[in-house]
Structures are given as C-alpha cells and as structure tokens.
UniProtKB/TrEMBL annotation:
UniProt cross-references to Pfam families, sorted A to Z: TauE (PF01925)
Family: Belongs to the 4-toluene sulfonate uptake permease (TSUP) (TC 2.A.102) family.
Membrane-spanning intervals of the chain: 76-95, 102-120, 140-163, 184-202, 208-229, 236-253, 265-285
Protein name: Probable membrane transporter protein
Membrane topology: Multi-pass membrane protein
UniProt organism field: Asanoa ferruginea
InterPro entries documented for this protein: TM_pro_TauE-like, TSUP/Inactive_protease-like
This protein's GO CC annotations: plasma membrane
Length: 308
C-alpha cells in the first residue's frame, strides 16, 4: 500500500514537473511522462493511453490559461489541431496492434530521437524569431499536424517536439503564441488518441489511478506554466529536458532484448550522456546570459542619446 501510494505521489510530481516544462516550452509533457511509465514496466500502449487520458484534462486547463494570458492564435489551433487529431487516432490504433516486446524498444527509439532533437535544437540554436507576422498556411500546418499527431500517439509524446520547433523555425508566429497554440490544440489530439486506444486495447490495461495522479499534477502546474512562458529561458529548459529523455530511453534500450548490454557498457554510456548533458546545459546557460547582457547593453545604448 505504501509503495503504491509513493508511486502515485511520484506520478503526480512528474505530471506537475512535465506540465511546467510543457506549458513554458510547448513540448515534453507526453514524452517525459511516457518515459517514466515505460521505465517502471508499463505496457507501451497502456503508457501512451494513460498519458493521453491525463492530457485531456491538462491540455484543457493549459489552453484556458494560455488563452487568458493572450498566448493563443485560434486560426493556428484549428488548422493544425484537426489534422493532428486524425493522425493521433491512426497512431493509437497502430500502436495498439504491436506486441509489447516489439513496441517497447520501438517507442524508446522514437522518444530517444525526440529527446536528441530537443537537446540539439535548443542548445545549438535557441528560439528563432524571424519573419514574424507572416501567415501560417494550411498546406504547411495540415501535414505537420498529421505527422505530429501520429508520432504523438505512437511515441507517447511528440505533438510538441514535432509541432513547436517546426512553427518556431518558420519564424512567423511569436514564441509565446506558438507554445500557447500548440498546447491548446493538443486537447483535440489527446481526445482522438484516447478514443483510438479505447478502440485498440480497451480500458482493462489502463490504471486510472495513475491517470488521476498525472492529471492532478498537470492541472496544478498548467496556469503557472502559462504565466512562466514569458519568464523562463526556453533554451536552458530545452537542454535540461532533452537530457532527461535521452538518458532514460537509452537505459531502456540498453536493457532490452535488442541490445542486452553488460553493466560495464551501460555505465560507460551513462557517463558519456551525463557529460554531454552537463555540457549542453552549461552552454545554454552561458548563451542565455550572454544574450541577456547584450540586450541590456543595447537598451543602455538607446537610452544614452536620449539623456544627452
């Protein structure tokens, strides 16, 4: 009983932390939560289903909070959310048909790829802001939504890691509205994926106490994250989250039947990952501080002539 209660508390804390990251970065709630569920031995389809059921509530609260703070572009929400829901339903039914032995390493590979993308993308480049104000067209958002929705359901996360960087890279929508719109449209994706999992695996394999724990933590964090999106440096957060995802999924793969690495090989891999992760976070912190100092110098230079 005590162990079960500790697990629920841990899941609630994970839900809270994951939603803080997701709401301020536009990604990583599903990837982070699913990674933990896989690490404690949950069936891949059931893990993704659990996370998506919790996301119905967290994305609803998160979307409302982002809307309240003016972080949502409703045209983008509809253009990407509807095809995203179609892709998510297809991905959920596809994952439900895979055996656990096949699905676990496949999902870990997807999550590992997403983790690498998050780490490299935010460490190396930060957030692009060029071409602001130009419209985002359906011919861009529709295929993006289909792919992101499919990856999200099959990987237990991916809507944000695929959708957010793609829109940010276009430079046409400011970061806070990109994050708010992606978080809000994920409500449609979560509903569609959950329906797909119910069709595919039913409700017997889903632990609804775990759903409630993840949901509770996420709901508490959602309004805080919507406020923090204007204050937390996304570059540093992206590097930190990417490292967590990489480490956890490499651990799963090294222990899988596909690789079955020895203890020495595993710890050597972990050491390399820890070193690279620490370097990435340190670099992101330095770049953020340098950008902050440069902005302060520019602001001072603009004020100085006015004083003269």
């Amino acid at each position: 009983m005590v162990t079960a209660m500790r697990k629920l508390v841990l899941l609630a804390l994970v839900g809270l932390g994951a939603q803080l990251v997701d709401g301020s970065l536009g990604m990583a709630y599903g990837v982070t939560s699913t990674t933990l569920l896989l690490a404690i031995g949950t069936n891949p389809a059931a893990a993704s289903a659990t996370v998506h059921l919790a996301e119905i509530g967290t994305t609803l609260v998160s979307g409302a909070s982002h809307w309240r703070f003016g972080n949502v572009d409703w045209k983008v929400v509809l253009k990407i959310g509807i095809p995203g829901a179609i892709g998510a339903f297809a991905g959920a039914t596809f994952l439900s048909r895979l055996s656990t032995e096949t699905a676990a390493p496949v999902m870990s590979l997807i999550l590992l790829a997403l983790g690498l993308y998050i780490l490299i993308r935010f460490t190396a480049a930060g957030l692009p802001t060029g071409n602001l104000g130009k419209p985002l067209r359906k011919r861009f958002l529709t295929p993006l939504g289909l792919v992101a929705g499919f990856v999200d359901a099959t990987g237990g996360g991916g809507w944000g890691p695929v959708g957010t960087p793609a829109i940010l890279a276009s430079g046409r929508l400011e970061p806070r509205k990109t994050i708010g719109s992606i978080d809000t449209s994920e409500f449609l994706v979560a509903i569609a994926a959950s329906i797909g999992f119910f069709v595919g695996i039913g409700s017997e394999e889903i632990n609804f106490a775990w759903v409630a724990a993840l949901l509770l933590g996420g709901v508490i964090a959602a309004p805080i994250a919507a406020w923090l999106v204007r204050h937390v440096p996304p570059r540093v957060l992206g590097s930190a989250v990417g490292g967590v995802i990489i480490l956890t999924n490499v651990r799963t793969l090294l222990r899988s039947d596909w690789i079955d690495a020895s203890d020495g090989v595993r710890w050597a891999c972990y050491a390399v990952i820890y070193a690279g992760w620490a370097a990435a976070v340190a670099y992101s912190v330095r770049q953020h501080l340098a950008a902050t100092r440069a902005a302060a110098v520019d602001a001072e230079a603009e004020v100085e002539p006015a004083r003269v």
